[in-house]
Write a structure and sequence with these properties.
40% helix, alpha/beta, Rossmann fold
Length: 270
């Protein structure tokens, strides 16, 4: 992957781009991540697809612009990026917050998208995200950023207080340094992660092919078992995959099963 920059006219977005091997595949990360967290997916699909992985504004190498972190702005940024960088309508894969952005793109900008994949977005929890067991990450992240906590102490806290594995703690600590602290404030106090509609309404307005990937709620997934019938009923052109041995970060925790499910879906899109 070659790391590049693109100025949309409003913000400079940092992204990685692979070789032009097939249908474009755009990867959109979640609220605690950067584009490099897609490495297991990039490694698998780089010879099959023209892979792009973008940093949202405020994340990674993209611009930090105070006061600009509103849900519709993130969607508009990705639409501008697609129109300016990607030669043909891509298949978009979004994780968590990135999945919410991807769903919003599909309903607001249907003509620039070929298909979408939604990895573990909140469904019934969308309106009550503070009830999710992973919500404590945002409180911890903001506190540690404000206190300028050392890497070693941050890793220890993620392990002892959030139950992260050493590898997860290392990644989370690395990402803390690459996310604008204002992002965490907007998430915690200004509802940045929500578009204002419930997930059923959002999904029902998506017309393009969609793969919805869920995982084990007991291991940290945002999707509850009772959400799955709602998703199935709401999607007009949807497929569903469920991976039982992963929590919220499915593409990192269970990459083989994830990539297999994704490849099966993409094989019908080539």
């Amino acid at each position: 992957m070659l790391e590049k920059k693109y100025y949309t006219g409003k913000v400079t977005l940092n992204y990685g781009e692979g070789l032009p091997n097939g249908v474009p595949l755009l990867l959109v990360h979640g609220s605690g991540s950067v584009w490099q967290d897609w490495t297991p997916v990039i490694d698998y699909f780089s010879n099959l697809n023209h892979v792009f992985a973008v940093d949202l504004r405020g994340f990674g190498g993209s611009d930090r612009i105070s006061g600009s972190y509103k849900f519709p702005t993130f969607t508009n940024d990705i639409a501008d990026f697609i129109n300016g960088v990607i030669p043909t309508p891509p298949i978009i894969v979004g994780h968590s917050f990135g999945a919410l952005i991807t769903a919003d793109l599909a309903r607001r900008y249907p003509n620039i998208i070929k298909a979408i994949v939604l990895e573990d977005p909140p469904v019934s929890l969308l309106e009550n995200l503070d009830q999710w067991e992973g919500w404590s990450y945002f409180d911890m992240a903001l506190e540690m950023v404000k206190k300028k906590t050392s890497r070693q102490e941050a890793e220890t806290r993620f392990i002892e207080e959030a139950g992260y594995s050493p590898a997860e703690a290392k990644r989370a600590t690395r990402n803390l340094e690459q996310i604008d602290p204002e992002i965490f404030e907007q998430i915690l106090y200004h509802n940045m992660l929500c578009s204002g509609e419930n997930m059923s309404a959002i999904l029902s307005r998506i017309q393009c092919p969609c793969l919805f990937i869920s995982s084990n709620h007991a291991l940290g997934s945002l999707v509850k078992p009772e959400d799955l019938p709602i998703v199935k009923k709401s999607l007009k052109n949807g497929n569903m995959a469920h991976i039982t041995d992963a929590g919220h970060g499915i593409h990192i925790e269970s990459p083989a099963a994830y990539n297999q499910a994704l490849r099966k879906f993409l094989s019908g899109m080539q």
